[in-house]
Amino acid sequence: MYKQFHPPVFVVGSSRSGTTLLYSILLSSGEFAIYQAETLLLEVCQPKYGNLKNKNNYARFISDWIRSKQFYRSALDPIEFVEGAINHHDNYIEFMKYFMESVTSKQGKKRWAENTPSHIFYMKELMEYFPEAKFIHVIRDGRDVAVSKRKLGWTGTKNNDPLKQLVYAAKGWERSVKAGRCYGKELGNNYMEIRYEDIVTNLDATLADISRFADITIDRSKIENSSIGSLGKANTAFSDKLPGISSRAVGRWKSELGDEEINILHLAIGDSLTQLGYDVSDDKKLRVSWKNGLHLKMCPTLLKMRAFLKYRTFLGRFTSDAIEIGLQ
To answer: What global pTM score does this model have?
Structure first.
């Protein structure tokens, strides 16, 4: 294994914001190890398995890990990896470092990037462990994100009401964006925001910005010759299989949502959309039923409560979130 690796890059953001596309673009530069999976180590594994210093917790975790899609995609030898991992499990970030550096070393590279969007809530901890790391926060119009998440059933609620599902998805997007921008202020020059809309409509300028920030060389020619991740297969929730970089997905919410849905989205996240520079102008008067209005007010509190129970109490062990065991 190399003694010295170059600083890693973390791609973070709300799910369905274009993080996979941005990650694929980074990998197409040829300067990073190719690893096409989310590690899920902090957001999923940490609450699921608990403190890795506990022998029983670690045994349960490592048994699942080497049978997971996350490990399979690494192409590492499971016996060799487990033998080395025993010295690198004081915490999940240390384990991540060992895992990603093992992948990087096996491929003869000196740099890795990690793409678990929800790690946006752990940027501060990651920065403490990787002080020279770079963080790229991908931001997309929350209305398009909410539509996509509802389509996939990733709304964060088991409620069957499509309108409530839309609100949950939108408020989840807002929570993620606010957390990323807040932590980003503390990270200074190690933090960068990229708009999904800029990737698909102003690619060359965006690539130049990414190259400067991440200290890599990436241009359109490398992307056009790459089939990595989203560059080879569209990562879409909809039936129209768009190419990896296409502006046709921008503003999809306009054709997918009815007036009431648009109104409630603007009430739910309009302020955040405006702060980010997205247009929320609408000639229609914003109206919503008292039941939906009450739900709008309760949703942020419910999301915070759920996060507290998952990440701060033993109930996180019983979460339905899990690494993808047995999948390739």
So the answer is: 0.88
Q: Is 137 helix (H, G, I), strand (E, B) or coil?
A: strand
- Note the pLDDT tens digit of each residue in 216-238: 998 888 888 887 877 865 554 43
Q: How far apart are CA 21 and CA 18, in angstroms?
A: 5
- Domain span holding position 149: 9-32+111-313
Q: The tokens of 222 are what?
A: 């490398």
In this structure, is residue 327 part of a structural domain? no
**C-alpha R_g of the chain:** 20
Rounded to an integer, what distance in angstroms lies between the CA atom of residue 303 and that of residue 298? 9
Task: Give residue-wise pLDDT tens across range 238-269.
Answer: 344 445 677 888 999 999 999 889 988 998 99
Domain harbouring 130, CATH code:
3.40.50.300
Angle at 302 between CA 300 and CA 307, to 5 degrees: 95
Report the domain count for the chain: 1
